[in-house]
Specification:
The chain is α+β, with helices and mostly antiparallel strands. It folds into three domains: about 110 residues, Rossmann fold; about 110 residues, D-amino Acid Aminotransferase, Chain A, domain 1; about 60 residues, Dna Ligase, domain 1 (2-Layer Sandwich). It is built from ten helices and 15 strands. The strands form three sheets. Strands 10, 11, 12, 13, 14 and 15 form a six-stranded antiparallel beta sheet that branches. It has a five-stranded mixed beta sheet with strand order 4-3-2-1-5, with helices on both faces. A four-stranded antiparallel beta sheet has the order 6-9-7-8, with helices on one face. A hairpin with a 4-residue loop joins strand 14 and strand 15. It is globular, with a radius of gyration of 20 Å. The structure holds adenosine-5'-diphosphate and magnesium ion. The site of adenosine-5'-diphosphate has 17 residues, from strand 7, strand 9 and strand 15.
Length: about 350
């Protein structure tokens, strides 16, 4: 029987493009080559599509994918050239223009099945303000917040914050990821600067009550039948899990499973599943929570294409549940095909 083609799309335009290359390299090494041939395509930071390696067998340990510093523009293609009958795409892309529904919509137009959530849940989960609104309808606990839209009076926003929240607050552009544009404000002066910074990344800004909490994450997998993992904990030795801490200093370790009591464990798993269903999720997501010392649980966000290296939280959470990385990849491909067949049927 001929092999199935798995297309890895990696790189991308967001701040998380380097993580994406690492995730894609992990996937290309772990794929079951009895079943798949792997074709890789790099998306540069300017959005060009570049044809990169094709693998019929497990690549050597020193095999590297292209990055923005090694890019070979002579291999550039039209984005639609990635299309091929019967192939499944794994868009190992994080953040805006990767995880926000845009690539997903493009793949649907090309009639390609793809791993992960479809257009709507991708864009809902990418938008921190809309996510909050959806969670509200479900009664899922989240930290109190305010919204500041471009053009609104900063003075009024400052007044509202003093009235409804207590410092410190967290200020976040609605549509970014990987802590870019996010800051912690201890007072009004900080808040003004934080709004200014966030407004460089988005016209819509979320202001959240800061909480002193542990960060607990749950893995979600499935379409109609949704499974969740035991939670894991991100152990920080920094106060704020910012981009530098996450990706440059590597100041993060994980505890899997997280040491939390049974009630907290059950609650986060239930909320994760409920939130995933509420946004219309399919395939996968990692759902992140804050858990305070007195056992309060707040849902922080859903990531619909979480970090996916073999050593990232999401795959490790599944490994802990007895689902090894390479089988997780196959499961995701099967789920992608199931969603695709259904979508095509609905387009009568
Ligand atoms: N309301 C909050 N209270 C305390 N810490 C927060 C709050 N919001 C964000 N943080 C810190 O900032 C980090 C990044 O925020 P998050 O909303 O997860 O954005 P991103 O999409 O960039 O991951 C969190 O992991 C946490 O360490
Ligand atoms: Mg986060």
């Amino acid at each position: 029987m001929s092999k199935e083609t798995l297309i890895l799309l990696y790189g991308g335009r967001s701040a998380e493009r380097e993580v994406s290359v690492l995730s894609a390299e992990s996937v290309m090494r772990a794929v079951n080559y009895e079943r798949f041939q792997v074709k890789t395509y790099f998306i540069t930071k300017d959005g060009q599509f570049i044809r990169t390696q094709v693998f019929d067998h497990k690549p050597k340990e020193n095999e590297r994918l292209m990055t923005n510093s090694t890019v070979d523009l002579s291999k550039a293609i039209k984005p639609s050239d990635i299309a091929e009958e019967g192939a499944v795409v794994f868009p190992v892309l994080h953040g805006p223009m990767g995880e926000d529904g845009s690539i997903q919509g493009f793949l649907e137009v090309l009639r390609l099945p793809y791993v992960g959530t479809s257009v709507l849940p991708s864009s809902v989960a990418m938008d921190k303000i809309i996510t909050k609104m959806v969670l509200e309808t479900q009664g899922i606990p989240q930290v109190p917040y305010l919204v500041h839209l471009d053009g609104q009076s900063v003075t009024e926003t400052l007044a509202q914050v003093s009235e409804r929240l207590t410092y410190p607050v967290f200020v976040k552009p609605a549509n970014m990821g990987s802590s870019v544009g996010i800051s912690k404000a201890e007072n009004e002066e900080d808040l003004e600067a934080a709004l200014d910074l966030a407004s460089r990344y988005d016209d819509r800004i979320l202001i959240e009550q800061g909480v002193d909490a542990r960060e607990i994450e749950v893995g979600i997998l499935g379409n109609q039948e949704v499974k969740t993992t035991l939670a894991g904990e991100v152990i920080k030795d920094v106060a704020f899990y910012d981009y530098k801490a996450k990706y440059i200093d590597n100041k993060i370790t994980m505890a899997i499973p997280a040491e939390v009591d049974e009630t907290v464990m059950a609650r986060v798993r239930n909320y994760a599943e409920q939130a995933f269903r509420a946004i219309g999720g399919c395939g996968l997501a990692r759902c992140d929570f804050f858990v305070t010392a007195d056992g309060q649980v707040y849902l922080n966000e859903l990531n619909t294409m979480p970090g996916f290296t073999q050593w990232s939280m999401y795959p490790l959470l599944w490994e802990n549940m007895g689902l090894p990385y390479s089988q997780l990849i196959e499961r995701l491909v099967n789920l992608a095909k199931e969603v695709f067949d259904k979508r095509e049927k609905h387009l009568i």
